[in-house]
Amino acid sequence: MTLNKQTYYTLALSAYFSLFALLMAWNTLLMPSARFPTALVLIVTVTPLLLPLRGFLHGRSKSTAWMAYVSLLYITHGLVEAMANLAERWYATGEAILALTLFMSATFYVRSNGKEPNQ
Questions:
Q1: Contacts for 26 with CB less than 8 Å, ≥ 6 apart
Q2: Cα–Cα distance measured from residue 109 to residue 4, given in angstroms and rounded to the nearest whole number
């Protein structure tokens, strides 16, 4: 079964916004940090997602590739946090799954976008 590039892009967008919402809710409502200010935690965790956002929303291949690279940070963070912190294991596992979905769908979108005959 092969999917078209629009399906990959839609999946990447939904994974991106789900990951963004999870990180915002996790760090503000569900388990706010007792050691660090919430604003600092949000700057560190959410800012890397915002860097390639403009081009990613326009469907540009280069920005989508950068979004895939950025998602690798969240895969790593989610897996490490799931192993280290038992209280936040489900949130971290969700982060890793969403980031992996973002990585795979963005990668397949860029790959299918490059195979077009007019590019």
A1: 88, 91, 95
A2: 8
Q: What is the pLDDT of residues 53-69, one digit of tens each?
A: 999 999 999 999 999 99
The low-confidence residues of the chain, meaning pLDDT below 70, are 1-2, 115-119
CB 93 within 8 A of CB 80: no
Q: What is the rounded CA–CA span in Å between residue 69 and residue 51?
A: 12
The closest of 110, 84, 108, 102 to 22, measured between CA atoms, is 102
The CB density around residue 92, as the number of other CB atoms within 10 Å, is 22
d(CA 43, CA 47) in angstroms, rounded, equals: 5
What does the domain layout of the chain look like in residue ranges? 5-114
Cα 55-112-95 angle, rounded to 5 deg: 60
- Structure pTM? 0.90
